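ugh ok so i messed up the first submission bc i forgot one of the chains. this is the corrected input, ALL of the components this time, i swear. 702 residues overall. if the numbers dont match what u have on ur side tell me asap before i send this to the collaborators (the ones from the other lab, u know who)
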Amino acid sequence: MKRSVLKIIKRPIIPALLAAGIFMLLLTGSPAGAADEYNCLMCHKHRYSGRIDENGKRWNYNVDEFLYNHSVHRSIECRDCHSYIKRIPHDPVTQNVNCGNQCHIKPPFAQEKFSHEKLIGIYNQSAHGIEPQDSEELKNAKPFCKYCHLNPMYTQISEKTVPFKESLQRCFNCHPQRGVVQAYKHMAHRLRKKTSRSSQEIVQLCSTCHADVALMKKLNVSERALTAVESYNRSIHGKLVRLGSQKAANCISCHASNALHDIYKKDDPRATIYKDNIAKTCSQCHEKTNSAFINIAVHPSAEREGDPIIYLVSIFFRVALYGAVFSMVGLMLFETFGRWRDGIKLILINGTSWRGQSKPRSKKEK
Amino acid sequence: MSTFSKIVSKPIDILTRAKAQEAEYFTHVDGVGSVPRDIYKHVKSNPIGDLPRYSVHIVIQHLLVFITFIVLAVSGLPIYFSDLFWASYFVSLFGGIDVARFIHRIAAFIMMFAAAYHMITIVAGTIQKIYHHEFDHKRTQLPRLKDLFDLIHDIKYFLGRAPYRPKMEKFMYKQKAHYLAIIWGNFVLIAAGSVLLFPDVMAQLFPETLGKILPSAGADTDSYSAFFQDLARLMHADEAVMALILLAFWHWINVHLVPGRFPIQWAFLNGKITREHQIEEHFLEYLNNLREIPAEREYMKNLLKELGIDGSKALSTADQDASFSQPVDAAPGEKT
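and heres the new structure output, hopefully the right one now
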């Protein structure tokens, strides 16, 4: 055994070949090609392609192939979304992308082509959907798909937390690996959590508009909605989310069902926070939800003055705090002063700390 | 007076002051002699501690509460002050807020265990003492009117209006106040903490219980859950902050940093108190020690002899004058 090992070391060609082989293996593995039937990337691959328009706004026309290949939409042709492009090279783009388009992907077990249309239907009925009677201001303020869903071209979705290779072993028995893995990659982060974003990001996202008190006032929201972000941040949910908790409730944990886009106003019977639905919403986390529990303020008010008893208790605690601290510390300092006058020294040395001469106590004694 | 003070040495100085001031200066103890009130200025003490003060159970309970309190404070404060910059650093000590909350609960349960352990110790110890006819309510934490007078007397002493500190029992006024504060704090923190930890259960429990106590509350009871939750949020945080500030700015300094206790008082580890401290602040408990510990009796007897204080009979104000002549003469002789 020993001799054979020595033999190999003596002839360096074998380990060298082995190393070269491993190295080559690492380099191989074909990169996943982007769905680019019409070769859009011929032009759009260039890094600095773009222009500055009449208003001075900068437009970036570059599409990073690597990032796109790792995005959610990696299998979608460019023209599935940018359907207004009829010829190449194309005219200046005037239209926005419509997420309700049908693309050329057929989901498994479905007959129609895929589209986000149904979801948009739900969304349009929610509190964020644009209604005909809305003012121009309100129409502009309401978020559209891409406001919350960042352009996924530049967003890499990290699937590191999902060990799909392990969990999908059983699926591979019947399903071809490629399709299942891709479907799973697309789905799995939604199976584990409500969103792929962290709770902090959700709160941040909602706060961009809802924390803007001036904007909210302009849009005539209710008094409670005006302070919703502020009061949420004061609640235990808000505090824990701010400190990084992934368990505590964020905005959409309560305000949307798992369909996620159905955010309705409080008085809408479809709303998760409608008075008849609220127990069910709370019970997602608080298992023993009851009729009394749902009265607890999730967005606690700022003022402790709201309830006279609570206000009195808070005053009591404030008085107790300052009273106790100042009286006890004061008494301690006073005591130390009195004992120091009577001749005590700081440290107990040779069995005594009373090594000093006591100061004269009163004029009479002198 | 001035000529007199030239020749006297230290021990006699005690007596001259006593003569002028106090009827209760000497305390006669059988088999020891007359113990002067300010003998604490002349005793020898071991900094580690001479006399027993706390049983091993109390020491264990204190350690449990001490450790869990720090853990609770470090894991709980960042939640209350979550918008301050240091909050996230404290949380990262535990590896995330979800872990910190879990540790907070574990520590809380250990602290509650310590509280229960303490109750058992106190109740069982009291029963045992009653059984052996040794129970004395003066040696317990029960507040008495005397504590108020002791406080007034002590303030007089600090002002220089009284010559000596009051004769106090095993637990003096500030210790009793602190003990009551701990009972109150534990009650508030455990009650409010349970409301925060089990909001759903408590929301039902509280109004139902309240509805039974106050039948007039009737249908309104649903709104009580919000009220109690708000109250718990307020009380848990405020009480905890108060406890922390009191412990940090008063208890620790008062116990370890004031003169005579500096740099550390060992009682929280070995349950022992120095002789000097015992006589100064817990004179009546020291008399109990003299009665109960033969070695201590021997020590004090020898010390009194050494200082030239006659222990054969009790001294009253009236006959102090008469008896002074002897120790005054004897003292210089001893010195030489």
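quick check: Chain B touches chain A through 71 residues (CB under 8 Å). that seems consistent at least. Residues 175-259 of chain B form one domain.
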